[in-house]
Hints:
Blueprint: E1 2-6, H1 15-33, H2 36-46, H3 51-54, H4 57-60, H5 67-70, H6 78-99, H7 101-122, H8 134-147, E2 152-159, E3 162-169, H9 170-187
Antiparallel strand pairs: 1-2, 2-3
Helix pairs in contact: 1-6, 6-7, 6-8, 7-8, 8-9
Amino acid sequence: MFPYLDTVARRYPPVIVWALVGVNVLAFLYQISLPQRLLDRFLFEFALVPSRFFGQLSLVAPSDWTPFLTNMFLHGGWLHLILNMWTLWIFGPAVEDRLGPGRFILFYLFCGVAAGLAHALANPDSVVPALGASGAIAGVIGCYARMFPAARLVMIVPILFIPLFFEVRAFVFALIWFLMQLIPGFMSLGDQASGGIA
């Protein structure tokens, strides 16, 4: 089930959403241009490795807190990038329009940092680099559902090769989406190797 479009009218062009999508795409193009050895080093430095801050690696590889910001602009593959940016493209413009560009970018970054911190605290000894914009986008989806709970979203569900379209209220989609994010998280509790794509 994927959101296809929303029905909230907007007054201004979503320049921050456009900029965020552009930065994420450029960052990913840079990632895939790196040879594997340099990519591993790049991800260790700029993705979020919880153990560098709260686990054993913090004793031997002290780090600044930059990865809590930079990890949300990195992605684990084309599908990961496309799904995250598509979701931001659907929900971001209405939220940016309501909050204004300045407050929207601060809110987006705050949600991304908060999600990274929650992940790191829940998995303090993980050495798996966590990366992705899902934490920030979760905040945008939640804000959208709070501001426009009755807004209708057109959803697409591919059944075999036939796309089916239907409408769902924003708060219903948000509830389903958050449940889909929480279930894998609960299943990985206690797994010290947990981490990776968000």
